[in-house]
Amino acid sequence: RYEITQREASAEILPGLRTPLWTYEGTFPGPTIESRRGHPVTVTHRNELPVPTVVHLHGGRTPADSDGYPTDLVLPRSTMHTGHAMHDPRAVVTELTRDYTFPLDQRPALLWYHDHRMDYTAPAIWRGLAGLHIVRDDAEESLGLPAGSRELPLMIADRAFAADGSLIYPALPDRPGVTEEYLAGVLGDVILVNGAPWPVHEVDAARYRLRVLNASNARHYELEAVTDNGRRLDLVQVGADQGLLAAPVTHSALPVAPAERYDVIVDFAGVPVGGRVLIRNRLGVGRTRDVMAFRVVRRATDDSRIPGVLSADLPAWQRSDAARVREFAFRAGRTHGRHGWLIGGLPFDPARSDVVTELGDVEVWRLVADVHHPVHLHLAGFRVLSRGGRPPLPHDAGLKDTVSLRPGESVEIITRFDGYRGRYLFHCHNAEHEDMGMMANLEII
Ligand code: C2O
Ligand code: CU
Ligand code: CU
Q1: Which residues are in the Plastocyanin-like domain (predicted)?
Q2: Which atom of ligand 1 is nearest to the CA of 58?
Q3: Measured distance CA(284)–CA(7) in Å, rounded
């Protein structure tokens, strides 16, 4: 049981300046919740922010009433007096506090929780409403992967700051989320890791488990680890969005789209004491090329290992298991006379039923993109079947809940809709695209 108060707070993110934030419990990121597989957790959220909020546990296998549907609002205290949000026709459920119950009957994984309010998700996350939730189990812990202080969750997010330290988020008064100049999404020129700009973390000359989350609204990364003398260290991937891979996959650089998680082992053993390893974004320019650095401060013993077999419980769905194949186009279009981002030609409408499927059905979805779209499915982890008509890429391995569609590409995924009945979502996780309509309903009956 946890209690989280959503409230305004400020933090010193840039030296000597205070940044006003919207927070979970006064910090950005919010408190990290650690739970055990199959041990249900209830989180009571109290909203003391000036706006309605909705909490979604990204990657959670969660009953629909706790999944954070965009109109299941937790009202701010002040609206009880003014009554404004009470007259919002889209406000289906409205409360001042809300209990979110997570059964967590799922593979151990790095999940994250964030705001999901209709039309306003992107600015809410930007202002600080995001936190980590790690699910663990005995089987994973017995593998011998680096643990304790050698396991580091890294929430990577870019932000833009004004001279006084406040966050800059572009918005027009007549439009909830973003302006047409920001069709590609909102980028910042400061890279934060766990809320700190370009941090330097001291490490032993040993293996570390880096649990990377791209919590940026729109920025893509292609991460590499480079030593002072220009040597690239291997990134040994052991897990994806939804937990451990079957076997490790070694990358020299790793693309990470918004909302994706990658669990990677980096070995600092070959780095001399005093040496540094830069984590860089090959897609960045200027200072957004740098993400963070590790400084090796001591020699140390290392009894961690990377087993050749990591997990044996990955679903092995075959194309022939699929009850049906659906196709969705993720494309720009016009909606209500403005530019928007659409799925199958339509902007999100909570009243419309887009996909209805039966509990237990296996489906193949063909996702087609115009520009880059990281597509996320609630509730059901999936596997990537093909990319651009070819076999999946090495970083597509494992069980995922977000897949990066590259410009012009079509990607096939396969999943089984099991766990719970009810109304869920799928959407682009470029948070601005999501707010501009690129979201649809998924109903499991
Ligand atoms: Cu991370 Cu529907 O969201
Ligand atoms: Cu989600
Ligand atoms: Cu998109």
Answers
A1: 10-70, 340-442
A2: 1
A3: 33
**pLDDT digits over 292-319, tens only?**
999 999 999 999 999 999 999 999 999 9
The reply to whether 251 and 332 lie within a common domain is no
Judge if 216 and 243 occupy the same domain: yes
In this predicted model, what pLDDT tens digit does every residue of 176-199 receive, in sequence order?
A: 545 566 788 999 999 999 999 999
Q: Are residues 32 and 72 in the same domain?
A: yes
ipTM of the complex: 0.99
29: preceding bond cis by omega (within 30 degrees): yes
Supply 362's token pair.
């296996």
28 CA → ligand 1 middle, Å: 18
358 and 258 together in one domain = no
Q: Provide the domain limits for residue 288.
A: 148-298
C-alpha closest to that of 23 among 115, 154, 93, 121: 115
**What's the number of domains the chain is made of?**
3
Write down the pTM of the prediction. Answer: 0.95
Assigned token pair, 70: 């965009």
For residue 346, give the CATH number of its domain.
2.60.40.420
Atom of ligand 1 nearest to the CA of 402: 1
Token pair for 309: 């077999």
